[in-house]
Amino acid sequence: MFLVFRFFAGMGSFWLLGAVPVWMTEIVPPRNRGLLVDIHSAALLFGYASASWCGFGFYHIKTINAWRGPLALQCLPALIVIAFMKWLPESPRWLIQKGRHEQARKVLSKLHAPEEAALEFTQIKSQLQLDSALPNTWKSLITKPSYRKRALFAVGLACGIQFTGVLVTVGASTVSEEQNLTSVDYGAIIYGGLGFKEDVILLFSAGFNTLAWVCGIGAMFIIDLFPRNVLVAFGTALVTSCLTVEAALVANFPPGPDQNNAALRAAVAMTFCYIAFAQLFLDGTQYVYYAELFPNYLRAKGMTTGMASISLMNVM
Rounded to two decimals, what is the model's pTM? Predict the structure, then answer.
C-alpha cells in the first residue's frame, strides 16, 4: 500500500514541479520573471528543510507509531493549497487560448493597472494568433531542427546540473524502526565516521538543508544580475571544486579507527560549501532557463522535458 500510494504522490509532485513554473511565467511580468520564478526553487528548499527538521523532531519520539507523524504533516501544505485554490488566478494566456476572454480580462485587471492590463490582453491575443500558425506538437520538438536544439539544451542542462551531485547531497535523512540511520545523503557516512550519533547526524542534515533554503532565497536577488549561462558555468565550477576537495579529503583520510577528524570536518565543511554554491547559482536558474528557452507556444512542453530529465536523474 505504501509503495502504491508513493507512486501517486510522486506523480502529483512532478505534475506540480512542471506546471507551477509555467504558470508563474505566465502570471509575472517579464521584467521580474527571474526573481519571481526563483521563488519556486526557494519553496522546494523550504520543503527539504522542513522535512529534515520534522525527521529530527520525530526521531526523539520513541514510539512504534512515530513514523506516522512526518507522513501526516506532508498533507498540511497540500491542504493549504487546495483551501486557497479558489483565489488562485488562472493563467491569462491559457484562458485566452481557450476563448474565455472575459475571464482573462478579469484576471489581468487584478494583476495590473487598467492600461497595462488592456495592453497585455492585446499582446497575448495577438501572440496566440501568431503562434497558432506555427508547429507546436511534441513531434515538432524532434523534427524541427531549431526546436530540437532547444530541447537538447533543456535535457543537457537538467542532466548536467543533476550530475554535479545535488540529488545525492540534498536529502532529508530518515530513521528506521530500529533507529538505524538511513539517508540519501552521503554526508551521513562522513558524520557517522566522525563519531556523531544518529540524532546529531539528523541535526547536521537539517542544518544542511536550512542553509540550502537560505541560499535559495539569496539566489532570487542574484539571478537577474548576470546572464543565465554565466551563473550556470560559475556555479558548476564552484561546486566541482568543492566536490574535488571533499573527494580528496575522504580518499586520503577515510573514516575509520585511525581517522583524521580535522580532515573529515573539512570534508563536512565542503558539503556545506557545495550546497551554498549549488543553490545560489544552479538550482533556481534551471527553472527560469527552461521557461525562457522555449517560445510561449512550446513553453509547457519545454518545461515538461526539463522536469522529465530531472526525474530520470532521480531514478538513476
Answer: 0.82
- pLDDT score at 183: 41
Please give the share of the chain, as a percent, with pLDDT higher than 70: 93
Structural domain of 54? 2-315
DSSP for residue 90: P
**Average pLDDT of the residues in 65-76:** 88
CA distance 39 to 97: 26
Average pLDDT over the chain, rounded to an integer: 85
pLDDT category at 35 given cuts 50, 70, 90 is confident
Dihedral of the alpha carbons of 42, 50, 305, 35, in degrees to the nearest 10:
-10
pLDDT number for residue 171: 47
Return d(Cα 89, Cα 109) in angstroms, integer.
Answer: 11
Identity of the amino acid at 81: V
How would you classify residue 256: left for phi > 0, otherwise alpha for psi between -120 and 50, otherwise beta?
left
What was the pLDDT predicted at 256? Answer: 79
> Angle CA(89)–CA(131)–CA(138) in degrees, nearest 5?
90
Number of residues in the chain: 316
What's the domain count of the chain? 1
Distance of CA 244 to the CA centre of its chain: 24
* CATH code for position 92: 1.20.1250.20
Nearest partner of 167 among 10, 38, 73, 48, judged by Cα: 48
User: C-alpha distances in angstroms, 63 versus 1, 60, 173, 176, 182?
Assistant: 22, 9, 18, 12, 18
For the segment 170-196, the average pLDDT, to the nearest whole number, is: 55
DSSP 205-246: HHHHHHHHHHHHHHHHTTTTTS-HHHHHHHHHHHHHHHHHHH
Residue 176 has a pLDDT of 40
159, containing H or E segment = helix 145-161
